[in-house]
Amino acid sequence: NFPRISLSPSLLSSLTSSFPLKRILLAKMFKKATYLPLNLSLAPLLLVLIFLLLCVVNGVDEKKILSVHNNIWSPKKSYEASSSCFSRSLGKGRDSTTLEMKHRELCSGKTIDWGKKMRRALLLDNIRVQSLQLRIKAMTSSTTEQSLSETQIPLTSGIKLETLNYIVTVELGGKNMSLIVDTGSDLTWVQCQPCRSCYNQQGPLYDPSVSSSYKTVFCNSSTCQDLVAATGNSGPCGGFNGVVKTTCEYVVSYGDGSYTRGDLASESIILGDTKLENLVFGCGRNNKGLFGGASGLMGLGRSSVSLVSQTLKTFNGVFSYCLPSLEDGASGTLSFGNDFSVYKNSTSVSYTPLVQNPQLRSFYILNLTGASIGGMELKSPSFGRGILIDSGTVITRLPPSIYKAVKTEFLKQFYGFPSTPGYSILDTCFNLTSYEDISIPTIKMIFEGNAELEVDVTGVFYFAKPDASLVCLALASLSYENEVGIIGNYQQKNQRVIYDTTQERLGIAGENCSI
Fold first, then answer.
1. Are the CB atoms for 285 and 296 separated by under 8 Å?
2. How many Å apart are CA 103 and CA 369, to the nearest integer?
3. How far, in Å, CA of 104 to CA of 107, rounded?
4. Structural contact between residues 347 and 509, judged by C-beta atoms closer than 8 angstroms
5. Contact at 8 Å (CB) between 496 and 347?
6. Of 501, 133, 101, 107, residue with least CA distance to 332
7. How many C-beta atoms lie closer than 10 Å to residue 465's C-beta?
8. Among 28, 115, 186, 487, which residue is least crowded by beta carbons within 10 Å?
9. Cα 206 to Cα 192: distance, rounded to the nearest angstrom
10. Which of 61, 125, 182, 226 is catalytic?
């Protein structure tokens, strides 16, 4: 006389949707009877027991919801960019200062064709990664200075990637300059008057002749020698046609033929509300390349000529950034100093040591010890090796064995969606045009000390086509197992990333970066 509860196929499917590997188990349990006599008071208990059984057998899947057509690439969204790349100071804390950080393409003053730009970005991102790998190979094999020059990291570090670069505004010699932020470069530089060959930029070029605080750096100085050590090359300091050259020149070339060249100098600079004297920078008088309207570049690498090293006494060698998801043209932040009160993180900061490698001293290297997809831990012989974290690279690159493990597990959990051929460097792609909200597995990277980076839901897929007919897993494989992995900025969105060069550690915390 007990009431009957129906466990229909649709309900059974719903119960097991997060556990695809164990569907067969439940199918066998209910194979002979769709209707079971059951006291209704016991129905909730049965559902709990089924859930616990699935958890024990397969683990609890971790998933997030992504709104497919509610993103910046979607034709449904229209965003009119600001007419200026110049950003603002966000205030000064205790021994710290914070700058607004804009996405470069969101200050172009025009409606953005995201589809075209996102497609082109993949090709250019690959050029940057190849340049990084060449530089790393040259540095670790103790090649000559000439070889280093030929394989120099693009100082622009993604400036040619016309969709995914971040800009801050500083005051140099009393004039506002928009600089692209790059942790993979050391020398900060701007275009200067008189300029023999300069690209078009927003706003006037820096003119040292009208600045009383501009100072020339000479060839015989230790600062000039530091430049050689940091960049692998410098301009000629000898004589020419009987004329002795006394000023220190810099020259940085790129694998694609772009370059910047000029004089090394020092100048006062204002970061937010903090004024700094005698900052060494490059006064670029001959610059070629698609630098896209910015005044120059802010080098946040680890060498002695980087902005981080030069401001050590002021900011204690600490800086952090928070990259926005770009969904509504929002800005992020770049902070200098160790005043944690300026952070708005929603999770606690976890730290991992910076790997010490004298041959790669300019880079920020972490020890990647593990990863998980949807809560399932992955295995790979390449875990426990160094991986770069970089603000200039877009798509994260993984050693082939790690990428294979990530892809395999991701496809086990993200199933039932129509697949499409791979696109450029991305080989795991789908057609999601007919979907609105989808559930996607979480992606986590684990570092030494159990520090964890959980990729934001907006950093899992790369929309190669704005209508979502070509959406790809936003991770790529390196060509060889012995190449160095790179954590790109696409997977760093909505994270507070803290670089502490004094204590040789990097901190990570979840944070809504949009301001």
1. no
2. 31
3. 6
4. yes
5. no
6. 101
7. 20
8. 28
9. 5
10. 182
Contacts of 14 (CB under 8 A, 6+ apart): none
Listed as own residue / partner, the contacts of 413-419 with beta carbons closer than 8 Å and 24 or more positions apart are: 413/20, 413/61, 413/63, 413/373, 413/374, 413/376, 413/441, 414/440, 414/441, 415/20
Alpha-carbon distance of 395 to 119, in angstroms, equals 12
Active-site position among 125, 186, 263, 390: 390
Closest C-alpha to 396, from 459, 463, 487: 487
| Residue with token string 């970061």 | 271
Q: 109 or 459, which is more confident?
A: 459
Q: Is the pLDDT of residue 161 over 80?
A: no
* Contacts of 386 by beta carbon, 8 Å cutoff, 6+ apart: 355, 357, 365, 366, 367, 368, 484, 485
259 vs 424, residue with greater confidence: 424
Higher pLDDT residue, 9 or 466?
466
Cα separation values, 70 from 45, 417, 436, 474, Å: 38, 19, 8, 18
**Phi, psi for residue 24 in degrees, rounded to 5:** -60, -40
- Residue 440 predicted with pLDDT over 90: yes
Distance CA 429, CA 285 (A): 44
Q: Which residue do the tokens 């790349």 mark?
A: 85
Helices (H), 141-169: 145-150
Q: Are the C-beta atoms of 214 and 173 separated by less than 8 Å?
A: yes
Residue 464 and residue 317 in contact, taking contact as beta carbons nearer than 8 Å: no
Give CA–CA dist 88/102, Å, rounded: 10
Contact of 265 with 215, CB cutoff 8 Å: yes
Amino acid at the residue 510: G
Report the SS3 class of residue 441: strand
Cα–Cα distance for residue pair 366/385, rounded to 1 Å: 8
* Nearest alpha-carbon partner for 296 in 165, 203, 194, 179: 179
Contact 490, 138 (CB under 8 A): no
Residue 273 falls in the annotated catalytic set? no
Establish whether 182 is a catalytic residue.
Answer: yes
pLDDT of residue 92: 61
